[in-house]
Design brief:
12 helices, 265 residues, 8 strands, 46% helix, 6-stranded mixed beta sheet, elongated, two-stranded parallel ribbon, alpha/beta
Amino acid sequence: SVLKKEYGDVLEFIYPEIGFEDIGGMEKAKNYLMKNVVEPIKKGDLRRVPMGILLCGPSGTGKTLLVNALAKSSGFNCVKIDMSRILGQYVGESEKNFKKCLLGAQSQQPVIVFVDEIDTTFRRGDSGDSGVSRNIFSEFLQFTGNTNNRGKVIFIAATNRPDLLDPALKRAGRFDKKIPILLPEEEERGEIFRIMIRKYGFDTDITDFTPFARMTENYTGAEIEIIVRKAYEISNEDEKSGEVITADILKEAIMRCRPSTQQVE
């Protein structure tokens, strides 16, 4: 609470409620994070920990969810850089806020610092903002490249347009590890259906979700969540089923919800 009082105006504090067990699929990414981030830090072997991790993939595939689950499963502090809290209206105010934000993150070691949509958050900028973007960008480059922070401040960034990132950000020694978070496979989709129904506490008589996983090719995790909520909505419309999600209801929900993530390819 002391840290929140001091740095809450420039940093968003994340208090995650879900762990790795609440996420369907992404086994390789979860294993990598446990073996190369959580375990080495707990053992004190910081040499194995990457300086930063870049999660790339279409929107709705669960990048932010993975960071929240990592924070919960590791027990580390977790903060998010939110530029709307940092940018000020006076000359020099934004840079001062950003320095304070990095200091606040550093004071909570070991800490996970999450930057969402990094392709729009940090860029060299143009002359239109009096060099503010450029100053903040260079400050960020210096901080992320500082090897003294290895294993103490773990930067995790998410983007669905890695092609727009500045090459200086992507170099090894800043974001050494790039993890693609792509559309879930058939088996993972079945797992997501099961987890979503359990998350919301819905009643269902379905035991095997494989047929529904087959029907939802090219759906993201977020879209499967929409399907499950839609199925509950339909079960409430039909008073005969008594709010139980049956196979027919789930099929109808899938028919009504089409995948909308356009930039997957």
